[in-house]
Amino acid sequence: PPVTARKRLELRLPGSCWSSAVSLEAAGTSGLLELPAGRGGGSAPSDGGPPRAYQLALGVTSAPGESCRSKMLLVEHRTTLLNRLDRPVGYVHHGKGGHTAALLRPGERAPFHWQDEPGLARLLSVCLLDAGADAASLAECDWSNALPIDSVGELNLVCRLSNRRTVLFLSVDVQLLSGASMLVVFSERTAELAPYRVDNLSALPLLISQSPCAALQQPRVVQEVLPASRAPFAWEQVVAAPTLDLHVGRSVRKVCLDDLQRSGTIPCADPRASGAPHEPSSVIAAPRSAFGDGAGEWNGYRDVRLESLHEGVATTRLPGSIARAEVRARHSQREGRFGWHGDELWTADGLRATFRVFFVRWGLEVDLDSRGMRRSEVDLRHAVAHAAVQSQRSASDGSFGWSDSTLWVDEGLRARFAVTLQRDALPGSRPPLELRYRMVADGPVKVLQVMPAPSAAASGEVPSLPVLASEEDDGKLRLSVHVSLACLGVSLIADGCEELLYLSLVDPVVSYRASSGRDFLSAQVRHLQVDNQLQAASFPVLLQPSFSAEEAQQAVRPHSLELLVQRRIGAAQVLYYETVSLRLQTLELMVDTVLVRTLFLFVLSTYLDLAKMATAVVEATTRGQPRRADAVVPPKVYLRWLNLQPLRLHLSCRSVAGGRGFEAVLENAPASAVGVLNSVSAVLSNIDSAPLQLKALVLDNTFAPVGTLAQAIGDSYREQLLQQLYKLLLSVELLGNPRGL
After folding, report:
1. What is the C-alpha to C-alpha distance for residues 149 and 172, in angstroms, rounded to an integer?
2. CA 3 to CA 72: how far, in whole Å?
3. Residues β-bridged to residue 702
């Protein structure tokens, strides 16, 4: 209903109290309005539910059409959730429990309002469900994660599917819509584009997880990274300063993955005997029972009798990599010789004896049950290197993991596990060796590399290294194109075959080269000029390069345009640019109001044709493709290095009366268009060589959607242009050009 001037509004929705007063005077403003839940004085919900709180986004604008002098209040939901996954998503206010959770199916969107209670922060908990799950499945979900969605930006998390060990990388993108309304988009992020990655370049297995903290008491995603392999990684819980727990045997290091200058060492035991032939340790093929073969198998050793004939060699293969062997009892008078290599023990020269053999790694079969959905654990006395389900006795997949020497199960999992144990050191073994770790960047992914220390690497113990994605290029040239012209000209023709502008490029050179993993594009123009072809032109040249006194005296003047683009080919779901560099020579722009008005008429006459052409192109490129609302995720671009050098422009303008056909157009033109043209003519009346300069723009390691990146670059230049307007005012000839601009 209409509201008189200088009056305020109060709003109320079913189940809420009246809001604070809202003013409608300031058009173009927006903000957040809180409607607290009704407590006695509030209205009862129309659906018979409990009292509710609401968060609304308000915007005050001018009414459209003939009512443009009136103010209009737009009321929207403050937060809207959108599911772009191929599976349902459950969501709830963190701390309220699954009984208040709601289900968001693929492609659906729903408004969300915080229902505040004492002690509850405004955090959102989400749970990923299997396709076809219903609302009844929400009661069994884990709601331990907590996401802040009050700030614009993107969060990348790793989530476990409900009652399964499968993990999925989740992107939570908080976008600002019109005014103060926000859209929270849930989508899947491929493992290749996970925010972090761990590369194991050592010969030892690694165990990684997010470090426990107050917000994450027990990590639910624990990953093993085998030697010469890699694993994508993301945080389970958003915290202020998250760290990663890196386990190597019984050594643990907390690593900050966001610090690309981070490096350090991890001490770990070398489980080989001194002077004995050896091979890199490996997991035994057939784990043996922990309780069927006595305490020896449990503690990682076995007594073995081996006899060799006179001047002969006897060998036996054991179920594990040997760390050390010692003689327990001799059964011959000959001294003989013995040794080991990998999992093989040998004797020679008539030695007959019983040996006690200690293993680097050995296997056990362990039965462990989680009763009543509670956590159960067992201490295996030695560091757990690996564990896998051998046979499962429960319907629930539950969860399991290990830390140091402890194996644990949770969420109702009952199973027999094949466990590989490893020892840290033995008497007489080498002193502890060190592993080295460092943080590097592989495009948008931050990589933690774990490798042997330089002394170990020099001994040849480094496995085959995984190649970074940015290095997957053999360097062989696959395609090369070089185009060079003496001159290139383009004319702009209006109706009636009248030429308006003529663009000339002198010595344009374009080169393109492509290898298996990269391509390179370079462009150069020695001289660039745009001529004004109107007969009554005040300036015959519209645009041309301007050179300083020093540049003008050079034998070869700088190029007017230089462009270099280096791009990586085949990057998964991302536009990967390693280098983008652009340099423009200082330009001189000279315009008059006749040219401005003529170009305005030209654009006005061709606008409808251009719109139809663009529509036809879009329809031709999308013909035959399924159309689903909100199904397309905007592409992202990664810029390793963007360098746009400073842009300098000298602007001159003359005010000239008239313009062919302009008065006839003004008779039927909208009042707003006429006002814009008159304002431009008044401001740009007489300007003589007013300098405008835009600062250099340098971006390093930038990863964002194409639209967001383009908007950020445009906003940067738009802000600088607004700051340069005062130079135009100081260069008006009416003031006599007091600054000599």
Report:
1. 9
2. 10
3. 639
Contact 412, 373 (CB under 8 A): yes
In this prediction, residue 308 has a pLDDT band, given cuts at 50, 70 and 90, of: confident
First to last CA, the chain: 55
* Residues 581-592 pLDDT 10s: 999 999 999 988
Q: Of the candidates 451, 444, 442, which has an alpha carbon nearest to the alpha carbon of residue 471?
A: 442
CB of 630 within 8 A of CB of 568?
no
Residue 114, amino acid: W
Take residue 74 and report the two structure tokens written for it: 């737009």
**Would the pTM count as exceeding 0.70?**
no
Q: How far is CA 647 from the centre of its chain?
A: 31
Sequence-distant (≥ 6) Cβ neighbours of residue 65 within 8 angstroms: none
What are the DSSP E strand ranges found in 11-166?
22-23, 29-35, 54-62, 71-77, 79-83, 89-93, 102-104, 109-112, 124-128, 153-160
Q: Count of CB atoms within 10 A of residue 615's CB?
A: 10
Give the integer Cα–Cα distance in Å for 303 and 356: 4
In sequence order, which residues have a C-beta less than 8 Å from that of residue 231 and are 6 or more positions away? 197, 198, 200, 208, 223, 224, 225
Mean pLDDT to the nearest integer, 722-739: 58
- CA-wise closest residue to 691 among 629, 739, 621: 739
Side-chain-side CA neighbours of 668 within 13 Å: the count stands at 5
DSSP H helices, 623-705, are 662-668, 671-683
Tens digits of per-residue pLDDT, 85-96?
998 999 999 888
pLDDT at site 621: 61
Residue 354 pairs in a beta bridge with: 305, 329
What is the enclosing helix (H) or strand (E) of 58? strand 54-62
Q: Answer for the pair 160, 126: CB distance below 8 angstroms, yes or no.
A: no
Residue 41 confidence (pLDDT) above 50: no
Which residue is listed with tokens 């933690």?
448
**DSSP code of residue 37:** B
Q: Residue 705 has what pLDDT?
A: 84
What six digits make up the tokens of 492? 């702009």
Taking each helix axis from N to C terminus, what angle separates 593-622 and 671-683, rounded to the nearest 10 degrees?
130
Res 427 pLDDT > 70: no
What is the CB neighbour count within 10 angstroms for residue 709? Answer: 19
**Is residue 402 within a helix (H) or strand (E), and if so which, with residue range?**
strand 399-403
How distant, in Å, are the alpha carbons of 128, 145, 267, 471 from that of 149?
17, 13, 40, 36
Backbone torsion region of residue 107, taken as left when φ is above 0, otherwise alpha when ψ lies between -120 and 50, otherwise beta: left
In terms of Cα–Cα distance, which of 39, 188, 36 is closest to 113? Answer: 36
Stated as kind and residue range, the H or E segment containing 33 is: strand 29-35
714 three-class SS: helix
DSSP count for the chain of H helices, then E strands = 8, 48
